[in-house]
Amino acid sequence: MSILNTFRIAIAALSKNKMRAGLTILGVVIGIAAVTAMVSIGTSASELVQGEFRNLGTNVIVISPGSRQARGARSQIPSLTAADIAAVSKECPSILAASPIVGAAGQVISGNNNWRPRELVGVGADYLLVRNWQIDNGSFFMDGDINNSNKVCVIGATVSKKLFQTANPIGQTIRIKNIPFEIVGLLASKGANIVGDDQDDVVLMPFTTVRKRLQGSNFNNVDVALASAKSTELMGVAEQEIRSLMMDRHRIAMGQQPDFEVANTTEIASAFGIVTGTLTAMLASIAGISLVVGGVGIMNIMLVSVTERTREIGIRMAVGARPRDILMQFLVEAMVLSMVGGAIGVTLGIVGSVALTSAINALSSGRDWPIIINQLAAVVSLIFSACVGIGFGFYPAWRASRLDPIDALRYE
Fold first, then answer.
1. Cα–Cα distance between 399 and 169 in angstroms, integer?
2. Domain range for 215
3. 266: burial class by Cβ within 10 Å (0-12, 13-18, 19+)?
């Protein structure tokens, strides 16, 4: 018997019991939908985390002062200086650029408007290069502004909107702690980060200006620094170059505790990727259990079907059907049930993942989750559903093919 005729007979047999066939595939539908949705949402979460690290900058390495513990409290050691960061930029071959960062806080006033930015920081001339951030209007401050502690600043889109509404802020003056600053640039908008913090609510100034004019300090130490490696492949090399240089500059002998810390954001991003990938695999595995349940359901229904159709099987054998034809018919029926269930499940899984991701974006105030449909998961789910039909349908099909024609014809 041809495969085409076998399919026709199988579909005709299933169509006689639509309710039973629908209930049979329900377990497969739920399992495939759950696997597709969980893997797609997990992929979206992983992409969101990786995107946040890419948004931090290009191949960024974070250099921070060391810490010490006294009387149960941990505090930073003011050991990182602007000269250290300048040396990192000049003497580490794998480093593209580096920028010191000095934090501040205060109100920003322009005319009758005032605003307290989320970030008020002093940075170096290469800060935007490290952060992979663009200027939307105007320009960034130069090395001369840093050397002379000039009172200039670059603001984010949120600060511009709060203080100037739709007016052009370039050339305007703002006051921070009663000190006038000229706005020389407007940053391109970056939006909210993963936890909902507005990255555009920022004012950037020369770090020397922040130290000298806002903090009234003549010390040369900085709070933290960001460095950018020339490529992702050189991240590890760049990190080692920074460590070696800093150990030499701070005269730290081998075996001694360094007074600085270096963190590779690529490694952190990879660690987060492993975590999200593991969670996705775990959720998909749990969801896959329902596929096994659905397969058991298919086997049970097919066994019942064999019992109910014993006389039909006997008649088919009496008119010339071979055992392998009977085996193939029931295998095709089981596979059709699982494949139909798989197709419906994949569709529901895609719709469910889109709906759930949209709901998360609507309820959260952070960066929107990307809507990603994992096509590989959908294809694998369909193939796996076919395997479930064949695997769990084989025993009922084999049992049907082993029936004795005479005993089958006598069955009531």
1. 82
2. 78-258
3. middle
- Using the 8-state DSSP alphabet, how is residue 369 labeled? P
The total number of structural domains that make up the chain: 2
Instruction: Determine whether 124 is exposed, middle or buried from the number of CB atoms within 10 Å of its CB (0-12, 13-18, 19+).
Output: buried
Structure confidence by residue, pLDDT tens digits, 98-115: 999 999 988 999 988 999
End-to-end CA distance of the chain: 27
Q: Which of 212, 232, 258 is the last residue of a domain?
A: 258
What global pTM score does this model have?
0.62
The dihedral region occupied by 111, where left means phi > 0, alpha psi between -120 and 50, and beta the remainder, is left
One DSSP character per residue, 188-225 reads PP--B-TTS-BTTSEEEEEHHHIIIIIS-----B-SEE
Instruction: Quote the DSSP letter at residue 259.
Output: S
Q: How far apart are CA 349 and CA 253, in angstroms?
A: 58
By the 8 A CB rule, do 389 and 336 touch? yes
Are 324 and 391 in the same domain? yes
Cα–Cα distance between 82 and 71 in angstroms, integer? 30
